[in-house]
Design brief:
This protein folds into 2 domains: about 5-60 and about 365-405, Urease, subunit C, domain 1, CATH 2.30.40; about 60-355, Metal-dependent hydrolases (TIM Barrel). About 35% of the residues lie in helices and about 20% in strands. The chain has 12 helices and 20 strands. The strands form 5 sheets. A 6-stranded mixed beta sheet has the order 3-2-7-18-19-20, covered by helices on one side. A 5-stranded parallel beta sheet has the order 13-14-15-16-17. A 4-stranded mixed beta sheet has the order 5-4-1-6, with no helix packed on it.
């Protein structure tokens, strides 16, 4: 059993804020948090030490847009929630072993999944959950076929979303989600790739409805994250108080400047379009879905540069629903290509900590933060392929000081 107070020694510490390596320091862990970064020669003689033998110590990664409850195209139709939850346990374990020690689920996973991790029933990252996504009729969360006139299941929220139309209905939906313990409210503010009845450029929800949602969220201590691609949809969402823009592929420089002014953040999810482009037709997409996917991928990379140039905080999300979640670390290389290695690593660490309102708690190896530490056989500042599914160099993972993975038998 790992002691509650110990030091990691003989490692190169990755300072993600400065984008540099700190040498000669031991990382002292106490009661699940980082107690100090101390010169190794100054450690008390009786303190337990774990040598990482010249490896690199990097902060645990954050994924700000996961779907752990969703794993195949017919989920919510042919697959019962009990099976989906059982499968979610496996997916959560794989995520933390991959090096993602904190995730924000963007719809589907609820307070029960979060508590299952906290109680040790499931092995996994710490979670922030959204539960049911709010969608208008015919919006991205309305997955009924065109000829399906029955709205009872969708309106009652028996899938991963709930259809709510009108100010009173959306207020009630926010209150119901809050009652069930969500960390944030997710809405569909525009069309999507997988939904059958909408177009990518069509904004969704009226301004009054979005304002009602953000008002309810703010009054119960939550914020709103919005699925939206179109530039006009992004602007109207931010103008109505939405804090976190998910995807945002068609972002313009003018709207990016508006986001920065309002303190809104952007969570791109570019790896999902790569993965779905490979696997989409196999898991059941129609050609129209594939065409939409190609369009958002083509525009998505430039949104990273546009947002960065405007000073918008850029997080990192994956949105892997039906394609293998093993692609989770591969998206870092897309960010790296556009923003450089150090800034791309910040997207999945300190930037995502800001997205999740966990600054100082996760995303950096600093005193007071949770001891979420990755031990790698490579320097991540030399290239983020060390987190990819084919070139992974993570050999050990700590979450709050507890061992989640130990391939090198260090602990």
């Amino acid at each position: 059993m790992t002691p509650t107070h110990y030091a990691l020694t003989d490692g190169h510490i990755v300072d993600v804020v400065a984008g540099e390596i700190r040498e000669g320091l031991a990382l002292v862990v106490k009661d699940g948090r980082i107690d100090s970064l101390t010169p190794a020669a100054q450690l008390p003689a009786d303190m337990p030490q774990v040598s990482v033998a010249g490896r690199y110590l990097s902060p645990g990664l954050l994924d700000a847009h996961t779907h752990v409850f969703i794993g195949q195209f017919n989920d919510g139709g042919d697959t019962l929630p009990s099976e989906m939850t059982a499968r979610a346990g496996q997916q959560l374990a794989e995520m933390v072993e991959r090096g993602f020690t904190t995730v924000r689920d963007a719809g589907g996973a609820d307070y029960g999944h979060k508590k299952a991790v906290e109680k040790g029933i499931f092995k996994g990252p710490r979670m922030q959950v959204s539960a049911k996504i709010l969608s208008q009729t015919g919006g991205h969360g309305d997955h009924r076929a065109m000829a399906d006139y029955c709205s009872c299941a969708a309106a009652n929220g028996t899938g991963t979303s709930v259809i709510a139309d009108g100010v009173d209905a959306v207020r009630k939906a926010v209150r119901e989600n809050a009652r069930q313990g969500v960390d944030q409210i997710k809405i569909m503010a525009g069309g999507g790739v997988s939904s059958p009845a909408d177009k990518l450029h069509h904004p969704q929800y009226s301004l009054d409805e979005i304002r009602a949602i953000t008002d309810e969220a703010d009054r119960c201590g939550r914020y709103v994250m919005a699925h939206v691609y179109a530039d006009a949809g992004i602007r109207r969402a931010v103008d109505c108080g939405v804090r976190s823009i998910e995807h945002g592929n068609f972002l313009s420089p003018e709207t990016a400047a508006f986001m920065a002014e309002r303190g809104a953040v952007l969570v791109p999810t570019l790896i999902t379009y790569v993965a779905d482009g490979i696997h989409g037709m196999d898991f059941g997409w129609a050609p129209e879905n594939q065409e939409k996917n190609a369009e958002v991928l083509a525009y998505g990379k430039q949104s990273l540069r546009i947002a960065h140039d405007a000073g918008v905080t850029i997080g990192y999300g994956t949105d892997l629903c039906w394609s293998p979640k093993t692609y989770q670390g591969d998206g870092l290389m897309i960010h790296e290509e556009e923003l450089g290695t150090a800034e791309a690593l910040r997207c999945a660490t300190v930037n995502n900590a800001k997205v999740l309102r966990l600054e100082g708690q996760v995303g950096a190896l600093i005193p007071g933060a949770f001891a979420d530490v990755l031990v790698l056989d490579a320097n991540p500042l030399d290239g983020l392929s060390c987190f990819s599914q084919t070139g992974n160099k993570v050999v050990a993972v700590l979450k709050a000081g507890a061992v989640m993975r130990d391939d090198a038998a260090l602990f």
